[in-house]
């Protein structure tokens, strides 16, 4: 109740200053006058910026590490965006409304790497957005000075930032290989050799290359759900004991059915892999010819019956 009264006092205080000038909505506010949303002690704790986790360590090209600890802002329409490379991206509504929105659009997570080149910085785990977290991809492009040049939202709650800096103007400034420690460079060399010798597939190459980038700290280990899907184990996981027992029952019945078919055709088989020396089943004594391992269509064996 006291807080509500206090909030009302703030509103009345604002009203007492009179209506805002007509052009105020379009005015670009470049300084930091808006502390109502951020530091207003009457606001509930949840409306202040609360990062979900610490940023990842600074990584990548050494000459970019000097950007760490600095912040660059851009005012676009009624929002001020702030990029702190290797730390975070935030958004601050430029209004004197008592509940002005401020939010975290991402916390420094990992690099995006394609074609041996650092393509962008991913800032993830920002404030909640529907069921996901806001995230931002920061693209580094060559420019005369350090400047947050552009912000857009290509898909819901995924933001694209363009950061201009003289630090990436040299054509080799974003290459990955030269930034790696010798041991990882040697692993990469070996990988190229193995690919050339066709000892690994292109797919295997991509996977092993990713592991090198992960070991370097440039990429973070992918989500468990993703890797589980990659390994194709998704369908083999059981949510409950009940569904596991049902699957077991179904498999047991399938084994019985297959055993029945083998028996019907007089094909010998072993009861299970654990008892390789167990006796053959079946009503007929197998001949030497049938005892060899099965390959292909059991129908071919019709002539031996
Ligand atoms: C964003 O990063 C800057 C620079 O390190 C830091 O001062 C600020 O507290 C961070 N903001 C949030 C909401 O974490
Ligand atoms: C990959 O990089 C090389 C040299 O850095 C360049 O010549 C080539 O066009 C790039 N390919 C793609 C698909 O970006």
Explain what this protein looks like in three dimensions.
By secondary structure, this protein is an alpha+beta fold. The protein contains 6 helices and 10 strands. The strands form 2 sheets. An 8-stranded mixed sheet has the order 1-2-3-4-5-8-10-9, with no helix packed on it. A two-stranded antiparallel ribbon has the order 6-7. Helix 3 packs antiparallel against helix 4. The longest helix is centred in the last third of the chain and has 24 residues. The chain starts with a helix and ends in a 41-residue tail after the last helix. It binds 2-acetamido-2-deoxy-beta-D-glucopyranose (NAG) (2 copies). One 2-acetamido-2-deoxy-beta-D-glucopyranose (NAG) binds next to strand 3. This is N-acetylglucosamine-1-phosphotransferase subunit gamma. InterPro entries: DMAP1-bd, Gtb1-like, Man6P_isomerase_rcpt-bd_dom_sf, MRH_dom, OS9-like_dom. It is found in: Golgi apparatus; Secreted.
